[in-house]
UniProtKB/TrEMBL annotation:
It comes from Persea americana (Avocado). This is Uncharacterized protein.
Length: 452
Protein backbone atom coordinates (compact mmCIF):
# COMPACT_ATOMS: atom_id res chain seq x y z
CA UNK A 1 0.00 0.00 0.00
CA UNK A 2 1.39 3.38 -1.00
CA UNK A 3 2.34 5.65 1.89
CA UNK A 4 0.19 8.68 2.53
CA UNK A 5 1.61 12.09 1.70
CA UNK A 6 2.78 14.03 4.74
CA UNK A 7 1.35 17.41 5.56
CA UNK A 8 4.46 19.37 4.65
CA UNK A 9 5.01 22.42 2.56
CA UNK A 10 7.25 25.25 1.55
CA UNK A 11 5.49 28.48 1.92
CA UNK A 12 5.65 31.92 0.25
CA UNK A 13 5.27 34.96 2.36
CA UNK A 14 3.24 37.59 0.58
CA UNK A 15 1.60 37.85 -2.79
CA UNK A 16 -0.70 39.50 -5.26
CA UNK A 17 -2.12 42.99 -5.77
CA UNK A 18 -5.86 43.47 -6.17
CA UNK A 19 -8.75 41.68 -7.81
CA UNK A 20 -11.03 40.41 -5.07
CA UNK A 21 -14.62 39.53 -5.64
CA UNK A 22 -16.72 38.86 -2.52
CA UNK A 23 -20.49 38.60 -2.15
CA UNK A 24 -22.01 40.08 1.04
CA UNK A 25 -24.38 37.12 1.01
CA UNK A 26 -24.73 35.28 4.29
CA UNK A 27 -25.14 31.54 4.23
CA UNK A 28 -25.12 29.60 7.47
CA UNK A 29 -23.55 26.21 7.30
CA UNK A 30 -26.06 24.01 9.10
CA UNK A 31 -28.03 23.58 12.35
CA UNK A 32 -26.01 24.71 15.35
CA UNK A 33 -25.50 22.40 18.33
CA UNK A 34 -25.84 24.19 21.65
CA UNK A 35 -22.45 23.50 23.21
CA UNK A 36 -19.72 23.79 20.55
CA UNK A 37 -16.47 22.08 21.46
CA UNK A 38 -13.41 24.36 21.52
CA UNK A 39 -10.43 22.20 20.57
CA UNK A 40 -7.72 24.57 21.82
CA UNK A 41 -9.42 25.75 25.03
CA UNK A 42 -7.26 23.41 27.15
CA UNK A 43 -4.44 25.96 26.73
CA UNK A 44 -6.31 28.45 28.91
CA UNK A 45 -5.80 26.18 31.92
CA UNK A 46 -2.03 26.20 31.28
CA UNK A 47 -1.69 29.98 31.34
CA UNK A 48 1.13 31.04 33.67
CA UNK A 49 3.07 27.78 33.43
CA UNK A 50 6.84 27.92 33.03
CA UNK A 51 9.97 25.80 33.02
CA UNK A 52 10.48 23.54 36.03
CA UNK A 53 6.79 22.97 36.71
CA UNK A 54 4.77 19.80 36.27
CA UNK A 55 1.17 20.57 35.35
CA UNK A 56 -1.55 18.16 34.30
CA UNK A 57 -2.33 18.77 30.65
CA UNK A 58 1.11 20.03 29.53
CA UNK A 59 1.44 16.92 27.36
CA UNK A 60 -1.48 18.25 25.28
CA UNK A 61 0.47 21.48 24.72
CA UNK A 62 3.48 19.43 23.59
CA UNK A 63 1.27 17.59 21.12
CA UNK A 64 -0.07 20.95 19.86
CA UNK A 65 3.46 22.28 19.31
CA UNK A 66 4.50 19.03 17.66
CA UNK A 67 1.52 19.22 15.30
CA UNK A 68 2.53 22.67 14.07
CA UNK A 69 6.23 21.89 13.78
CA UNK A 70 7.65 23.50 16.93
CA UNK A 71 8.62 20.15 18.43
CA UNK A 72 10.09 17.28 16.37
CA UNK A 73 7.58 14.74 15.11
CA UNK A 74 7.70 11.66 17.33
CA UNK A 75 9.29 8.98 15.19
CA UNK A 76 10.13 6.58 17.99
CA UNK A 77 8.77 5.33 21.30
CA UNK A 78 11.17 7.44 23.39
CA UNK A 79 10.12 10.73 21.74
CA UNK A 80 6.46 9.76 22.08
CA UNK A 81 7.01 9.13 25.79
CA UNK A 82 8.48 12.64 26.18
CA UNK A 83 5.40 14.20 24.57
CA UNK A 84 3.12 12.27 26.94
CA UNK A 85 4.95 13.86 29.87
CA UNK A 86 3.47 16.80 31.83
CA UNK A 87 6.81 18.34 32.79
CA UNK A 88 7.82 21.81 31.57
CA UNK A 89 11.36 21.06 30.35
CA UNK A 90 14.02 22.81 28.25
CA UNK A 91 12.64 21.37 25.01
CA UNK A 92 9.18 22.80 25.67
CA UNK A 93 10.58 26.20 26.66
CA UNK A 94 12.58 26.35 23.43
CA UNK A 95 9.52 25.41 21.36
CA UNK A 96 7.44 28.13 23.03
CA UNK A 97 10.15 30.71 22.32
CA UNK A 98 10.12 29.73 18.64
CA UNK A 99 6.34 30.07 18.59
CA UNK A 100 6.50 33.49 20.26
CA UNK A 101 9.13 34.63 17.77
CA UNK A 102 6.99 33.58 14.79
CA UNK A 103 3.90 35.33 16.14
CA UNK A 104 5.75 38.50 17.24
CA UNK A 105 5.03 37.97 20.92
CA UNK A 106 7.32 38.75 23.83
CA UNK A 107 9.84 35.92 23.90
CA UNK A 108 9.53 34.67 27.47
CA UNK A 109 9.44 30.89 27.04
CA UNK A 110 6.38 30.92 29.31
CA UNK A 111 2.69 30.46 28.62
CA UNK A 112 1.83 34.06 29.37
CA UNK A 113 -1.61 35.53 28.66
CA UNK A 114 -0.75 36.80 25.15
CA UNK A 115 0.78 33.47 24.12
CA UNK A 116 -2.17 31.47 25.43
CA UNK A 117 -4.61 33.78 23.65
CA UNK A 118 -2.79 33.39 20.32
CA UNK A 119 -2.54 29.61 20.66
CA UNK A 120 -6.29 29.30 21.26
CA UNK A 121 -7.24 31.03 18.01
CA UNK A 122 -8.49 28.50 15.40
CA UNK A 123 -6.01 28.02 12.59
CA UNK A 124 -4.81 26.16 9.52
CA UNK A 125 -3.46 22.68 10.15
CA UNK A 126 -0.36 23.12 7.98
CA UNK A 127 2.79 23.33 10.16
CA UNK A 128 4.65 26.61 10.58
CA UNK A 129 7.98 24.77 10.84
CA UNK A 130 9.12 21.83 8.72
CA UNK A 131 12.29 19.90 9.59
CA UNK A 132 13.29 22.63 12.02
CA UNK A 133 12.96 25.45 9.48
CA UNK A 134 10.26 28.11 9.62
CA UNK A 135 8.66 29.10 6.35
CA UNK A 136 7.04 32.15 7.89
CA UNK A 137 8.12 35.65 6.86
CA UNK A 138 7.27 39.13 8.08
CA UNK A 139 5.48 41.29 5.55
CA UNK A 140 4.25 44.63 6.82
CA UNK A 141 1.07 45.91 5.24
CA UNK A 142 0.42 42.69 3.33
CA UNK A 143 -3.31 42.51 3.92
CA UNK A 144 -3.93 41.64 0.30
CA UNK A 145 -2.72 39.09 -2.13
CA UNK A 146 0.54 40.08 -3.79
CA UNK A 147 2.76 38.91 -6.60
CA UNK A 148 4.02 35.40 -5.83
CA UNK A 149 7.62 36.58 -5.66
CA UNK A 150 6.74 38.27 -2.33
CA UNK A 151 5.75 35.00 -0.61
CA UNK A 152 7.57 32.34 1.37
CA UNK A 153 7.42 28.82 0.00
CA UNK A 154 7.45 25.37 1.53
CA UNK A 155 10.77 23.80 2.29
CA UNK A 156 12.43 22.42 -0.86
CA UNK A 157 9.95 24.59 -2.80
CA UNK A 158 7.63 21.89 -4.21
CA UNK A 159 6.13 23.25 -7.43
CA UNK A 160 3.85 22.27 -10.25
CA UNK A 161 5.74 21.33 -13.44
CA UNK A 162 6.59 24.42 -15.55
CA UNK A 163 4.28 23.18 -18.32
CA UNK A 164 1.39 22.82 -15.86
CA UNK A 165 -0.17 26.28 -15.88
CA UNK A 166 -3.84 25.26 -15.95
CA UNK A 167 -4.91 23.41 -12.82
CA UNK A 168 -8.21 21.58 -12.66
CA UNK A 169 -10.20 21.17 -9.47
CA UNK A 170 -13.17 19.14 -8.31
CA UNK A 171 -15.23 18.39 -5.21
CA UNK A 172 -15.53 15.18 -3.23
CA UNK A 173 -19.20 14.18 -2.96
CA UNK A 174 -20.97 13.97 0.37
CA UNK A 175 -20.58 15.82 3.68
CA UNK A 176 -20.82 19.20 1.94
CA UNK A 177 -21.54 22.02 4.38
CA UNK A 178 -22.88 24.24 1.57
CA UNK A 179 -25.02 23.27 -1.37
CA UNK A 180 -22.85 22.49 -4.39
CA UNK A 181 -23.75 25.64 -6.35
CA UNK A 182 -22.80 27.87 -3.44
CA UNK A 183 -19.58 25.96 -2.87
CA UNK A 184 -18.69 26.24 -6.55
CA UNK A 185 -19.17 30.01 -6.41
CA UNK A 186 -17.07 30.35 -3.23
CA UNK A 187 -14.17 28.35 -4.66
CA UNK A 188 -14.33 30.06 -8.06
CA UNK A 189 -14.00 33.42 -6.27
CA UNK A 190 -11.10 32.16 -4.16
CA UNK A 191 -9.23 30.74 -7.16
CA UNK A 192 -9.82 33.95 -9.15
CA UNK A 193 -7.77 35.87 -6.60
CA UNK A 194 -4.74 33.68 -7.14
CA UNK A 195 -5.30 33.61 -10.90
CA UNK A 196 -5.10 37.42 -10.93
CA UNK A 197 -1.56 37.42 -9.53
CA UNK A 198 0.01 34.18 -10.73
CA UNK A 199 0.57 32.45 -14.06
CA UNK A 200 -1.98 29.76 -13.15
CA UNK A 201 -5.51 29.40 -14.44
CA UNK A 202 -8.10 27.20 -12.73
CA UNK A 203 -10.93 25.15 -14.19
CA UNK A 204 -13.54 23.07 -12.41
CA UNK A 205 -14.19 19.55 -13.68
CA UNK A 206 -16.78 16.99 -12.58
CA UNK A 207 -14.45 14.02 -12.13
CA UNK A 208 -12.69 14.83 -8.86
CA UNK A 209 -10.46 11.75 -9.19
CA UNK A 210 -8.86 13.19 -12.31
CA UNK A 211 -8.60 16.76 -10.97
CA UNK A 212 -5.25 18.27 -10.03
CA UNK A 213 -6.81 19.83 -6.93
CA UNK A 214 -9.30 17.88 -4.83
CA UNK A 215 -11.56 19.73 -2.38
CA UNK A 216 -13.77 18.28 0.33
CA UNK A 217 -15.28 18.63 3.81
CA UNK A 218 -14.38 15.96 6.36
CA UNK A 219 -14.76 15.25 10.06
CA UNK A 220 -12.32 13.73 12.54
CA UNK A 221 -10.03 11.01 11.19
CA UNK A 222 -10.63 11.10 7.43
CA UNK A 223 -7.82 8.95 6.09
CA UNK A 224 -5.04 11.41 5.24
CA UNK A 225 -3.07 10.88 8.45
CA UNK A 226 -3.99 14.31 9.82
CA UNK A 227 -7.34 14.05 11.64
CA UNK A 228 -9.46 17.08 12.41
CA UNK A 229 -10.05 17.97 16.05
CA UNK A 230 -13.61 19.31 16.24
CA UNK A 231 -14.90 22.83 16.61
CA UNK A 232 -12.63 25.77 17.30
CA UNK A 233 -9.38 24.00 16.40
CA UNK A 234 -7.96 23.20 12.98
CA UNK A 235 -10.16 24.79 10.32
CA UNK A 236 -8.61 23.06 7.32
CA UNK A 237 -5.39 21.85 5.77
CA UNK A 238 -3.86 21.41 2.34
CA UNK A 239 -1.09 19.36 0.77
CA UNK A 240 1.74 20.79 -1.30
CA UNK A 241 2.23 20.41 -5.08
CA UNK A 242 1.66 18.02 -6.63
CA UNK A 243 -0.54 16.19 -4.08
CA UNK A 244 -3.16 18.92 -4.33
CA UNK A 245 -5.63 18.08 -1.54
CA UNK A 246 -7.61 20.69 0.40
CA UNK A 247 -9.75 19.50 3.31
CA UNK A 248 -12.08 21.63 5.45
CA UNK A 249 -13.31 20.54 8.88
CA UNK A 250 -17.04 19.97 8.45
CA UNK A 251 -17.59 20.26 12.22
CA UNK A 252 -16.88 24.00 12.12
CA UNK A 253 -19.67 26.55 11.72
CA UNK A 254 -19.05 28.02 8.29
CA UNK A 255 -20.64 31.06 6.65
CA UNK A 256 -20.13 33.65 3.97
CA UNK A 257 -19.87 37.11 5.54
CA UNK A 258 -20.08 35.63 9.07
CA UNK A 259 -22.74 37.30 11.25
CA UNK A 260 -20.93 36.66 14.54
CA UNK A 261 -17.66 35.29 16.01
CA UNK A 262 -19.30 31.86 16.21
CA UNK A 263 -18.89 31.46 12.43
CA UNK A 264 -15.80 31.21 10.22
CA UNK A 265 -15.59 32.86 6.82
CA UNK A 266 -15.31 30.04 4.30
CA UNK A 267 -13.88 32.16 1.49
CA UNK A 268 -11.08 33.58 3.64
CA UNK A 269 -10.06 30.05 4.64
CA UNK A 270 -10.38 28.81 1.04
CA UNK A 271 -8.08 31.54 -0.32
CA UNK A 272 -5.54 30.64 2.38
CA UNK A 273 -5.69 26.90 1.75
CA UNK A 274 -5.50 27.33 -2.04
CA UNK A 275 -2.30 29.30 -1.50
CA UNK A 276 -0.82 26.16 0.03
CA UNK A 277 -1.85 24.19 -3.07
CA UNK A 278 0.45 26.49 -5.06
CA UNK A 279 3.33 25.81 -2.67
CA UNK A 280 3.02 28.83 -0.41
CA UNK A 281 3.99 28.70 3.26
CA UNK A 282 2.62 30.67 6.19
CA UNK A 283 3.31 34.36 6.75
CA UNK A 284 3.94 35.89 10.18
CA UNK A 285 2.05 39.07 9.25
CA UNK A 286 -1.29 38.87 11.11
CA UNK A 287 -3.00 40.78 8.28
CA UNK A 288 -1.73 38.53 5.50
CA UNK A 289 -4.00 35.96 3.85
CA UNK A 290 -1.31 33.32 4.56
CA UNK A 291 -1.23 34.02 8.31
CA UNK A 292 -2.15 30.67 9.91
CA UNK A 293 -4.79 31.85 12.42
CA UNK A 294 -8.28 33.22 11.78
CA UNK A 295 -10.67 34.45 14.44
CA UNK A 296 -14.36 33.68 14.23
CA UNK A 297 -16.23 36.37 12.33
CA UNK A 298 -13.04 37.65 10.71
CA UNK A 299 -12.78 38.12 6.94
CA UNK A 300 -9.65 38.52 4.86
CA UNK A 301 -9.18 39.46 1.25
CA UNK A 302 -11.45 42.53 1.04
CA UNK A 303 -9.74 45.32 -0.84
CA UNK A 304 -10.80 48.27 1.24
CA UNK A 305 -8.29 49.65 3.78
CA UNK A 306 -5.53 47.39 2.49
CA UNK A 307 -2.03 48.09 1.27
CA UNK A 308 -1.00 46.65 -2.07
CA UNK A 309 2.20 47.33 -3.92
CA UNK A 310 1.38 49.26 -7.11
CA UNK A 311 -1.90 50.82 -5.97
CA UNK A 312 -0.29 54.27 -6.14
CA UNK A 313 -0.08 53.83 -9.93
CA UNK A 314 -3.83 53.21 -10.05
CA UNK A 315 -4.34 56.37 -8.00
CA UNK A 316 -2.19 58.33 -10.45
CA UNK A 317 -4.30 56.95 -13.32
CA UNK A 318 -7.56 57.97 -11.64
CA UNK A 319 -6.14 61.38 -10.70
CA UNK A 320 -5.06 61.97 -14.30
CA UNK A 321 -8.59 61.40 -15.58
CA UNK A 322 -10.27 63.40 -12.81
CA UNK A 323 -11.60 60.67 -10.52
CA UNK A 324 -9.27 61.67 -7.69
CA UNK A 325 -8.42 65.27 -6.71
CA UNK A 326 -5.15 66.63 -8.04
CA UNK A 327 -2.47 65.82 -5.47
CA UNK A 328 -1.26 69.41 -4.99
CA UNK A 329 -4.69 70.57 -3.85
CA UNK A 330 -5.17 67.69 -1.41
CA UNK A 331 -3.96 68.10 2.17
CA UNK A 332 -3.30 64.39 2.60
CA UNK A 333 -1.23 64.00 -0.52
CA UNK A 334 0.77 67.13 0.27
CA UNK A 335 2.17 65.39 3.33
CA UNK A 336 2.38 61.97 1.69
CA UNK A 337 2.70 61.99 -2.07
CA UNK A 338 0.28 59.88 -4.05
CA UNK A 339 3.30 58.10 -5.50
CA UNK A 340 4.08 56.77 -2.00
CA UNK A 341 0.55 55.68 -1.07
CA UNK A 342 -0.44 52.05 -1.73
CA UNK A 343 -3.48 51.95 0.57
CA UNK A 344 -6.96 51.02 -0.68
CA UNK A 345 -8.97 53.63 1.21
CA UNK A 346 -12.45 55.16 1.08
CA UNK A 347 -11.33 57.80 -1.43
CA UNK A 348 -10.04 55.19 -3.86
CA UNK A 349 -13.17 53.07 -3.50
CA UNK A 350 -15.34 56.11 -4.24
CA UNK A 351 -13.24 56.99 -7.31
CA UNK A 352 -13.57 53.46 -8.69
CA UNK A 353 -17.34 53.53 -8.22
CA UNK A 354 -17.58 56.80 -10.18
CA UNK A 355 -15.41 55.32 -12.94
CA UNK A 356 -17.63 52.24 -13.08
CA UNK A 357 -20.74 54.42 -13.27
CA UNK A 358 -19.30 56.47 -16.13
CA UNK A 359 -18.38 53.37 -18.10
CA UNK A 360 -21.63 51.50 -17.42
CA UNK A 361 -19.94 48.76 -15.38
CA UNK A 362 -21.23 47.00 -12.29
CA UNK A 363 -20.65 49.43 -9.42
CA UNK A 364 -18.64 47.38 -6.92
CA UNK A 365 -15.87 49.73 -5.81
CA UNK A 366 -13.43 46.91 -6.57
CA UNK A 367 -10.99 46.29 -9.40
CA UNK A 368 -12.92 43.40 -10.87
CA UNK A 369 -12.06 41.84 -14.22
CA UNK A 370 -14.39 44.07 -16.29
CA UNK A 371 -13.09 47.25 -14.63
CA UNK A 372 -9.46 46.26 -15.09
CA UNK A 373 -10.09 45.43 -18.75
CA UNK A 374 -11.75 48.80 -19.39
CA UNK A 375 -8.97 50.72 -17.65
CA UNK A 376 -6.29 49.05 -19.79
CA UNK A 377 -7.86 50.20 -23.08
CA UNK A 378 -5.87 53.11 -24.63
CA UNK A 379 -7.82 56.35 -24.36
CA UNK A 380 -7.96 60.13 -24.73
CA UNK A 381 -6.02 62.09 -22.11
CA UNK A 382 -8.80 64.60 -21.38
CA UNK A 383 -10.28 64.05 -17.89
CA UNK A 384 -13.75 62.52 -17.53
CA UNK A 385 -14.33 64.43 -14.28
CA UNK A 386 -13.55 68.13 -13.77
CA UNK A 387 -13.76 69.77 -10.34
CA UNK A 388 -15.59 66.74 -9.01
CA UNK A 389 -18.26 66.78 -11.75
CA UNK A 390 -18.49 64.14 -14.47
CA UNK A 391 -18.44 65.63 -17.96
CA UNK A 392 -19.27 62.34 -19.67
CA UNK A 393 -22.60 62.33 -21.50
CA UNK A 394 -25.20 59.60 -21.06
CA UNK A 395 -24.89 56.44 -23.09
CA UNK A 396 -27.13 56.57 -26.19
CA UNK A 397 -28.09 53.35 -27.92
CA UNK A 398 -26.77 53.30 -31.45
CA UNK A 399 -24.65 56.41 -30.91
CA UNK A 400 -21.62 55.15 -32.82
CA UNK A 401 -21.72 58.26 -35.04
CA UNK A 402 -21.70 61.97 -34.32
CA UNK A 403 -25.04 63.40 -33.29
CA UNK A 404 -26.33 66.95 -32.72
CA UNK A 405 -24.32 68.95 -30.20
CA UNK A 406 -27.40 69.26 -27.99
CA UNK A 407 -26.89 65.61 -27.05
CA UNK A 408 -23.31 66.16 -25.88
CA UNK A 409 -21.85 67.15 -22.51
CA UNK A 410 -19.75 70.27 -22.11
CA UNK A 411 -16.89 71.21 -19.84
CA UNK A 412 -17.82 72.91 -16.56
CA UNK A 413 -18.83 76.56 -16.88
CA UNK A 414 -19.68 75.89 -20.57
CA UNK A 415 -16.55 77.58 -21.93
CA UNK A 416 -17.12 78.63 -25.57
CA UNK A 417 -15.31 80.40 -28.38
CA UNK A 418 -15.84 84.14 -28.68
CA UNK A 419 -18.83 85.20 -30.83
CA UNK A 420 -16.45 87.60 -32.62
CA UNK A 421 -14.94 84.62 -34.46
CA UNK A 422 -18.18 84.16 -36.40
CA UNK A 423 -17.89 80.37 -36.08
CA UNK A 424 -14.70 80.48 -38.14
CA UNK A 425 -11.73 78.65 -36.58
CA UNK A 426 -8.28 78.14 -38.02
CA UNK A 427 -5.89 75.30 -37.29
CA UNK A 428 -2.28 74.42 -38.07
CA UNK A 429 0.48 71.96 -37.21
CA UNK A 430 3.41 72.40 -34.87
CA UNK A 431 6.83 72.52 -36.45
CA UNK A 432 7.87 69.88 -33.91
CA UNK A 433 5.30 67.42 -35.21
CA UNK A 434 6.74 63.88 -35.14
CA UNK A 435 4.83 61.09 -36.84
CA UNK A 436 5.39 58.18 -39.19
CA UNK A 437 2.82 59.65 -41.60
CA UNK A 438 3.81 62.11 -44.31
CA UNK A 439 2.63 65.70 -43.97
CA UNK A 440 0.09 65.53 -46.83
CA UNK A 441 -1.53 62.45 -45.26
CA UNK A 442 -1.86 64.22 -41.93
CA UNK A 443 -3.44 67.25 -43.60
CA UNK A 444 -5.99 65.02 -45.28
CA UNK A 445 -6.82 63.14 -42.05
CA UNK A 446 -7.40 66.31 -40.03
CA UNK A 447 -9.35 68.03 -42.76
CA UNK A 448 -11.68 65.02 -42.83
CA UNK A 449 -11.98 64.99 -39.05
CA UNK A 450 -12.85 68.71 -38.84
CA UNK A 451 -15.33 68.32 -41.68
CA UNK A 452 -17.33 65.90 -39.56
Amino acid sequence: MASKPTLFFTWPSTLLPLFLFLFPLLIESRPIPQAPHQAFQFIKKLEGSQKGQTIIGLHHLKQYLEKFGYLPHHSNTETKRIYDDDSFDDLLESAIKSYQHNFHLNITGKIDAATAEQMMIPRCGVPDIVNGKSGKGRHLGSTQLHQVSHYAFFQNEPKWPPSKTQLTYGFYPGNLVFDIQTLRSICANAFSKWQAVTHFTFQEIEDVNNADLKIGFFSGDHGDGVPFDGRGGTLGHSFEPTVGWTHFDSDERWAMNPPSPEFFDIESVAVHEFGHLLGLAHSSDPNAIMFPSLRGGQRKGSQKCETIKGLHQLKQYLEKFGYLPHQHSNTYTQTKGIEDDDSFDDLLESAIKLYQQNFNLNITGKIDAATAEQMMIPRCGVPDVVNGKSVMGPYLLGSTHLHPISNDSFFPDASTWSPDLNNYLTYGFSSRLKTSLDYEKIESIFASAFAR
